[in-house]
Amino acid sequence: MDLNQLQERLSALRSETVDALAGVASMDELRRLESQTTGKSGTLGAWMGTIKEYPPDQRGEVGKALNQAKGELTKLFKEAGERIKAGAAAAEASKASSYDPTLPGVRPPVGSFHPVTLVQLEVEDVFRRLGFLIETGPEMESEYYNFEALNIPKLHPARDMQDTFWLTNGKLLRTHTSPVQVRAMERHGPPLRVLAPGRCFRYETIDASHENTFHQVEGLMIDRHISIANLIAMMKLLLREVFGRDLKVRLRPGYFPFVEPGFELDMSCLICDGGGCATCKQSGWIEILPCGMVHPNVLRAGKIDPHEYTGFAFGLGLTRLAMMKYGVADIRGLNSGDLRALVPATRTGGPTLLTC
Hints:
The chain is α+β, with helices and mostly antiparallel strands. The chain contains eleven helices and nine strands. The chain has helices at about 5-20, 25-40, 45-50, 55-95, 115-130, 145, 180-190, 230-245, 295-300, 320-325, 340, and strands at about 135, 140, 170-175, 190-200, 215-225, 250-255, 260-270, 285-295, 310-315.
């Protein structure tokens, strides 16, 4: 380009720089713009390298024009830098004037909820939105509420299924949260929607998927014309809400004295994606939701007429649900205090923390 074209480009560069400086708010942005404009590899720096390409009689004029433009641009950058520094100083002074050293400090959030607690809160939230009451009951329970009121009388063979911790005062550590359902029926009567989360105890062999202390949530819905279809729809809704997607499940017959008919709802093991592992005993399935229609004898124990009302009940192992949701392969880790299990990695790759 000739000298006149160079003069035009230098004038345009100055105008562009003025416009760009109006939007610069920090020293980092200013330095970046200055490097792009007057630096050795910047626009003006590149033009400086072309002086030798001009005829000898024009090089003096070209060099003079380029140096004059560089001086003007350098002055613009200096003024912009002073403006930014003055603004930062004013903001710092304003902040300092509003600081009250007598105010208490801010306590940083520390810790997180246990994975089982996180799952319990999720399940409770789902059922609260469906109109369910959240009920609790004693962990030291009477034989009547833990067995007899649930259609498991003395000498009933089903009692052999419950490996129970018996206490010296004649009571026991509850083996499920079903006693809370009977107490809720007595207290509220029909129609009834109740959710009973809590800790349970069973005297059984500990392995990767069984513990002697575990957390469970049981649900009960009693009203006129309740059917198995209502039960299945509710179970699918629950799993979809907790896991955020539809899961592969199967429903098979199961025997529980307090429901008739009874079912076992299994979900595909998320630890091995159904391929088989120690957690699912190489089956690819995890027992997650025993359920069924409430037995008439249980309704009678709760002072409800089985000829007028029907209902369904289900029991969900919160500990197993936490294992599936957070990828904890061994149930023993959840009670061990091992932080690798208590701050589990989610299936999206990040930790699930909820600060207290």
